């Protein structure tokens, strides 16, 4: 028999305005599900203990997790009593508390740390494994008042626990749209042309595609590079269109939120409950991958890597962005005019800033040197021009090999926001009047890790972790540029 509800819950539920389209699930189904979830029990004897969902240092805390089975794959078990049929409507939908729902973080049971078969309690937002008797989710529903509605994190199916019947209700669709951002090809095309404003639950408006990213410790470079790469239309379209391959709710599918693809989808999701999102699980995964591949690397080395936008960019181009897109979008070939016309393939063009002056000038101030980008590009001609040109000012930061101190080159680079000209190799060294390649700026990351990006409507936004501000085009060129992404607009 299903356990009895707490008194308070029933009284409140009677007044709820929950609306339901249809209810389903038979006696036998309900019992099968219970049996299935018996296998996924992790709480153990004595009941589950509450733990904070956003775990820090979870690598150390992680316990071995028992294997789990999906509810649907188990065989029928015997039962001696017949539970009553599930109600036609779920009376507890009014306890769904959307402001507490956050699917950006690692999807792991907050009690057993299991990753499989997890549900989100839609009242408190915590994640729990299983839904059969003795599972953390089931126990949570019994222990807490009004925590009855749960959503499966991999397929979006909703259940009322501990009664264990499936809820079919259109009012939960908005939650699914946050859990599984999806984009049709029409929507992707619209996002390419139109600035779309959306409203967060707290009433604030946010610009879809230019949302703030939570600050994750020692990952300053990740936020700025993610914001910059999200401007590359073809890469973005690839990430957004991949959302349609996902499960339609009938079959389980992993919904990883720790990939660049998932982060990109959340940045461009107009159904978000908040005007910002978190790269937390993505950064965790990046760090784990490095530790696996290079166990000898120190934590501080990994911190340095992801704090530095240029080092992060190189890591992304090697390990994160699909190789097909790196080759198709960023790969080009340079003709080195000052090196006997040697050719050099590249995915970014490394540019060297002139050395900063060592001595103070007569005004007792360090003169801040300036250099034009065109000057730095003079020794190069493009043999193969990529669609998106990445420029990196590689000696913006340098490390003294004896003292290990990092120093910054303060040189200001002057650059155009539109029509950056780069000569074609066919015209190099000759008096040919052929037109150069022409590029428009899409994103500019400065030495402080702020990324200023051009939105689809042509407006510029400065992003600094959670903060996003509109700026004028002429403000983009101020500051110490470090990494830039341009888009080709004209070829010879
Ligand atoms: Zn709860």
Automatic annotation (TrEMBL):
<dbReference type="InterPro" id="IPR028889">
    <property type="entry name" value="USP"/>
</dbReference>
<dbReference type="Pfam" id="PF00443">
    <property type="entry name" value="UCH"/>
</dbReference>
<keyword id="KW-0863">Zinc-finger</keyword>
<feature type="compositionally biased region" description="Basic and acidic residues">
    <location>
        <begin position="68"/>
        <end position="79"/>
    </location>
</feature>
<dbReference type="InterPro" id="IPR038765">
    <property type="entry name" value="Papain-like_cys_pep_sf"/>
</dbReference>
<dbReference type="InterPro" id="IPR001394">
    <property type="entry name" value="Peptidase_C19_UCH"/>
</dbReference>
<dbReference type="GO" id="GO:0004843">
    <property type="term" value="F:cysteine-type deubiquitinase activity"/>
</dbReference>
<feature type="domain" description="UBP-type">
    <location>
        <begin position="88"/>
        <end position="186"/>
    </location>
</feature>
<feature type="compositionally biased region" description="Acidic residues">
    <location>
        <begin position="26"/>
        <end position="38"/>
    </location>
</feature>
<dbReference type="InterPro" id="IPR001607">
    <property type="entry name" value="Znf_UBP"/>
</dbReference>
<feature type="compositionally biased region" description="Low complexity">
    <location>
        <begin position="12"/>
        <end position="24"/>
    </location>
</feature>
<dbReference type="InterPro" id="IPR050185">
    <property type="entry name" value="Ub_carboxyl-term_hydrolase"/>
</dbReference>
<dbReference type="GO" id="GO:0008270">
    <property type="term" value="F:zinc ion binding"/>
</dbReference>
<protein>
    <submittedName>
        <fullName>U4/U6.U5 tri-snRNP-associated protein 2</fullName>
    </submittedName>
</protein>
<dbReference type="GO" id="GO:0016579">
    <property type="term" value="P:protein deubiquitination"/>
</dbReference>
<feature type="region of interest" description="Disordered">
    <location>
        <begin position="1"/>
        <end position="85"/>
    </location>
</feature>
<dbReference type="Pfam" id="PF02148">
    <property type="entry name" value="zf-UBP"/>
</dbReference>
<keyword id="KW-0479">Metal-binding</keyword>
<feature type="domain" description="USP">
    <location>
        <begin position="211"/>
        <end position="489"/>
    </location>
</feature>
<keyword id="KW-0862">Zinc</keyword>
<dbReference type="InterPro" id="IPR013083">
    <property type="entry name" value="Znf_RING/FYVE/PHD"/>
</dbReference>
């Amino acid at each position: 028999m299903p356990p009895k509800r707490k008194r308070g819950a029933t009284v409140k539920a009677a007044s709820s305005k929950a609306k339901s389209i249809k209810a389903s699930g038979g006696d036998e189904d309900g019992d099968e599900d219970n049996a299935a979830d018996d296998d996924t029990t992790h709480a153990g004897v004595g009941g589950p203990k509450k733990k904070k969902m956003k775990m820090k240092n979870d690598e150390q805390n992680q316990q071995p997790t028992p294997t789990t089975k999906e509810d649907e794959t188990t065989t029928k078990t015997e039962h001696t009593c017949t539970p009553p049929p599930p109600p036609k409507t779920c009376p507890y939908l009014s306890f769904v508390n959307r402001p507490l729902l956050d699917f950006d973080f690692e999807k792991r049971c907050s009690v057993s740390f299991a990753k499989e078969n997890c549900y989100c309690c839609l009242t408190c937002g915590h994640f729990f494994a299983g839904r059969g008797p003795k599972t953390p989710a089931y126990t949570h529903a019994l222990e807490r008042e009004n925590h009855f509605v749960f959503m499966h994190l991999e397929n979006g199916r909703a259940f009322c626990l501990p009664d264990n019947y499936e809820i079919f209700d259109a009012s939960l669709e908005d939650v699914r749209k946050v859990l599984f951002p999806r984009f049709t090809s029409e929507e992707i095309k619209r996002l390419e042309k139109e600035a779309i404003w959306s409203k967060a639950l707290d009433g604030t408006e946010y610009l879809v595609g230019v949302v703030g990213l939570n600050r994750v410790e020692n990952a300053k470079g990740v936020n700025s590079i993610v914001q910059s790469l999200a401007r590359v239309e073809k890469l973005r379209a690839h990430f957004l269109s991949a959302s349609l391959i996902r499960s339609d709710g009938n079959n389980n599918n992993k919904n990883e939120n720790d990939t660049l693809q998932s982060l990109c989808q959340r940045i461009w999701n107009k159904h978000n409950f908040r005007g910002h999102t978190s790269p937390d699980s993505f950064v965790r995964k990046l760090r784990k991958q490095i530790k696996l591949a290079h166990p000898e690397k120190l934590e501080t080395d990994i911190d340095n890597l992801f704090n530095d936008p240029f080092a992060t960019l190189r890591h992304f181009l090697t390990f994160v962005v699909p190789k097909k897109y790196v080759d198709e979008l960023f790969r080009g070939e340079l003709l080195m005019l000052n090196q006997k016309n040697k050719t050099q393939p590249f995915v970014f063009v490394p540019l060297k800033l002139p050395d900063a002056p060592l001595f103070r000038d007569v005004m007792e101030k360090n003169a801040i040197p300036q250099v034009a980008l065109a000057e730095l590009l003079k020794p190069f001609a493009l043999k193969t021009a990529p669609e998106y040109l990445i420029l990196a000012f590689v000696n913006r930061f340098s490390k003294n090999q004896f003292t290990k101190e990092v120093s910054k080159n303060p040189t200001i680079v002057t650059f155009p926001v539109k029509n950056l000209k780069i000569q074609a190799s066919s015209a190099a060294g000759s008096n040919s009047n052929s037109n150069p390649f022409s590029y428009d700026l899409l994103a500019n990351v400065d030495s402080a890790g702020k990324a200023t990006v051009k939105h689809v409507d042509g407006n510029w936004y400065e992003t600094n972790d959670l903060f996003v501000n509109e700026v004028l085009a002429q403000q983009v060129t101020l500051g110490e540029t470090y990494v830039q992404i341009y888009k080709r607009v004209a070829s010879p």
